[in-house]
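> example.struct
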């Protein structure tokens, strides 16, 4: 059985990133760049309250070095 990914929008993702030490490093258009003090970096697309696609969410979770459980 594969793990189920939560359905999240950009606001919910950025809340988890902030809680885990990431800071907003910049924004170009609708894409925000978030950096962690140890050098990890992720890009979060901000499109209102639309849910983030599963593949994009997987990429954000992997890039952030966090577990899927932290996003639930």
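> example.seq
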């Amino acid at each position: 059985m594969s793990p189920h990914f939560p359905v999240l929008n950009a606001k919910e993702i950025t809340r988890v990133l902030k809680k885990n030490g990431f800071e907003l490093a910049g924004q170009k258009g609708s894409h925000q760049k978030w950096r962690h003090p140890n050098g990890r970096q992720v890009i979060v697309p901000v499109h209102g309250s639309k849910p983030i696609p599963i593949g994009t969410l997987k990429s954000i979770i992997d890039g952030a070095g966090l577990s899927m459980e932290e996003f639930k």
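> remarks
The radius of gyration is 12 Å.
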